[in-house]
Amino acid sequence: GQGVDEPLSATGFRQADAAGLFLSNVKFTHVFSSDLLRAKQTAAAILGKNRFCKDLEIKYDARLRERKYGVAEGRPLADLKAMAKDAGEQCPSFTPSGGETLDEVRERARDFFEFLCQLAVELEQKEHGKPGAPGRSSGTSGEQFVFPWTNHCSEAEPSSEGGGSSTVLDANILVVSHGAYMRNWIGYFVSDLNCTLPADLTKSQLSSVSPNTGVSHFIIKLGSGNLLNPEITCVCLNQDSHL
Questions:
Q1: Where is substrate bound in this sequence (predicted)?
Q2: Binding residues for substrate
Q3: Which end of the chain is more exposed for a tag (fewer CB within 10 A), N or C?
Q4: C-alpha 93: how far from its chain's center?
């Protein structure tokens, strides 16, 4: 939760370093992290291993905090499950006294995601001086966004067809957050924004909490700067091959 702001354990630091090595060739343009200490340390460890952006500023945002669990914070998970059982509810959807509901967590996620979309559009408009200008590529050869779970770079070039009508927003954003929060964020992507999922993804995988330093990769396309109807594709979910 939020109330117990513990640092990473020795295992947590090793996992964060492993994630940093895994992502060391990915050129990020922005980094956002929860303002809780364990997330801050994870973000710093990832950037510390990166070839391109060791000095990139990490921006901390309270909207990325873990779900607030109220009276259950600082207590074993078994206690939370017992509270849910006593209330006649299932644990994931149960809200302890003083905690956040799932809808409240999802609203935080929605607010932060819309902020990211607005950021990407403003970057593009600032680059070209006005909306609707042709897109730009994501850097010169050797500076593309190479992702370790694919055999190719991301789609970096605007379409050669249609006179450059396909605008590429040059933002590759690392977001460091927490398991329960991210599960709700992904739920928002799927249920509210019709995110396209990998064909082999099971329902149990979709609803599971990411392992520590698990990596999920989403491609977001904003047609004509339309923030209300983004096209979202999930490339991978809770990737943990680096652990």
A1: 38, 66-69
A2: 38, 66-69
A3: C
A4: 22
